[in-house]
Amino acid sequence: MLTLPKTSKSLLVCTTLSDEERWEDALSVVLAENGDGFRAYVDVVDDSVWDGVSWEQVRQAAIKANDQVSVLFIVDRAAMERGYPIQVIDLDDDARQPFRCIASELWGVENNLNISNMDWEEFAGRTDDDGVFRGFS
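Above: the chain sequence. Below: its structure as tokens.
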């Protein structure tokens, strides 16, 4: 059974080894502070044992490893596209349908969901037709 580290932060798990350079670029975008000084507070997991693992399996491992955060982020093959649309997974008992968020806006999802400042629907309801949240502007 695959296990994830115990942490008080949301996890950002890479499940594709298809392009190391794009993964590193996506990660740098996620971890960068925006113009207002906000950033995503995530612990990164990029171990090759997670390569090709489904989001459902990663979600179950995240639930077992952590009961303090409400959201999980997965960089899969689809997240390697332009803008890095990272998969956003609900960790609550009544799990909602995942959506995607571009890497530069991940800070807002992570910050606001983990402190319950905003609800899942406020982000999921603002996704474009392709299911990607690109911010509120």
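The chain has a mean pLDDT of 94.
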